[in-house]
Specification:
It comes from Acetobacter peroxydans. This is Glycosyltransferase RgtA/B/C/D-like domain-containing protein. By secondary structure, this protein is mainly alpha-helical. The chain has 19 helices and 4 strands. It folds into 2 domains: about 10-295, no CATH class; about 310-410. α2 runs parallel beside α12, α6 runs antiparallel to α7 (about 140-165) and α10 (about 195-205) runs antiparallel to α13. The protein starts with 8 loop residues before the first helix and ends with a strand.
């Protein structure tokens, strides 16, 4: 009942750092935070290499840093490889630029970096597609080298991963069960409302006069990148468990475009500045207030979570944690991936022994997080939560309510 639908590259990197630091989760969070800030820096580099000014580059980089911190605050320093994959792919774009007759070596390096990013997180589609369309229009020779290198890199990566991890790698990544609903799309549109001003400011590049081949090329790329990112991000939001990380490419593309527009001295640049900064000024006060409350409650919150970890650590035998970090810090093995088990149940792919295990009281504790959407997705599909039903049928009862809405169930005394 343990699943993995992520490519292997991030596990190798974070695993290496984690072995040095002694904590895999903290290492993953540090890598994610570094990658997030690096994305802001790389966007600034791309703006300069596409003909923008230093002022526009600084503005574009700051927009990435500020929006990713304020609008996407829940993903700051989270142990997820999304920002790492974006950083690697943006590194590929930086190598490729400027795109005026790029050398074969630069195209090959860019393709390898973008392919590597795909083996960190495989839902990043907008940048590879946009570069492909852009090169097809701009330089057929570079496009051919790009496609050939990318195809060889992807095929080689799949062959190597299959050789190392077996056919299960292909099944886990390509045939992972997932449900789809319009609720996710609605949530995605709601999140994009916060980026509307930034997106409009990026599209203002179409209103800027393009008097040189570089300006025309940059305008085409930004338009392609932003449009494809909007479409692919919203499409991904149809899938259960896909959150606003699907819109990171939209943020990066919009910041790139806004930085290029802000490099111009015109009324259009002033309008772009107002559109870009306005939402930040509206969102920042409430977010700052939340962060201040979090800092004030940090000591109490830390003690509460430490109490949960201590309880789990003191329990002999297997423990099933929906919040996997709790079992990790308590020194317990990962027994159940609740979200992906939910998806497998909804997709009717195979039978799983969760009910049988709890019936024989195989888990000495079961931690459930009622704040997650997993239960909502189950209830809308089946009218009930079969995992909770299995606990109730086995006479598990809540014996401890912890911070963040978590509940720990225990089996009946023998």
């Amino acid at each position: 009942m343990v699943f993995n639908n992520y490519p292997p590259l991030s596990f190798l990197l974070i695993g290496f750092i984690g072995h040095l630091s002694g904590d895999m989760i903290v290492s993953g969070r540090c890598v994610a935070l570094f990658s997030q800030m690096s994305c802001a820096f790389l966007i600034a580099c791309c703006i300069v290499r596409m003909g923008g000014t230093r002022t526009g580059a600084i503005a574009g980089g700051l927009l990435v840093a500020l929006y990713s911190t304020i609008s996407f605050h829940g993903y700051v320093a989270i142990n997820d490889p999304q920002w790492l994959a974006n950083m690697i792919m943006l590194g590929g774009l930086t190598v490729l630029l400027p795109a005026e007759l790029p050398s074969a070596r630069r195209v090959i390096c860019a393709a390898l970096l973008v392919a590597a990013g795909g083996f960190v997180k495989h839902n990043l589609l907008a940048l590879p597609l946009s570069i492909s369309l852009w090169l097809a229009w701009k330089d057929r020779r570079a496009f051919l080298i790009w496609c050939t290198t990318g195809a060889v890199a992807v095929a080689g990566g799949f062959l190597l991963s299959t050789a190392l991890y077996g056919p299960a790698f292909l099944v886990d990544v390509l045939h992972h069960p997932r449900t789809y609903s319009l609720q996710g799309l609605a949530r995605g549109l709601g999140k994009l409302v916060e980026l509307t001003g930034l997106i409009i400011s990026a599209y203002l590049i179409l209103a800027c006069p393009a008097t040189s081949p570089q300006q025309r090329s940059s305008r085409l790329f930004v338009t392609l990148f932003l449009t494809v990112a909007l479409i692919t991000g919203l499409f991904q939001r149809l899938g259960a468990g896909v959150t606003y990380n699907a819109h990171f490419e939209t943020l990066l593309a919009a910041s790139l475009g806004a930085g290029l527009v802000l490099s111009r001295s015109s009324r259009i640049a002033f309008a772009a500045l107002c559109l870009s900064v306005g939402p930040l000024l509206a969102l920042a006060p409430s977010q700052i207030a939340r962060e201040i409350r979090s800092i004030r409650n940090l000591q109490t919150s830390t003690a509460e979570w430490q109490d949960v970890v201590t309880r789990i650590r003191a329990t002999p035998g297997p423990v099933a944690c929906e919040t996997l970090a709790l079992c990790y810090w308590a020194g317990k093995d990962e027994e159940v991936d609740f979200f992906n088990l939910t998806q497998a149940i909804l997709a009717h792919q195979g039978t799983y022994p969760f009910a049988a295990i709890v019936q024989r009281q195989g888990f000495h504790l079961v931690q459930i997080d009622h704040t997650l959407r997993r239960q909502d997705e189950l209830s809308s599909e089946t009218g009930r939560d079969p995992l909770i039903d299995a606990l109730n049928a086995a006479d598990y009862t809540p014996f401890f309510k912890g911070p963040g809405g978590i509940i720990i169930f225990s089996p009946p005394p023998r």
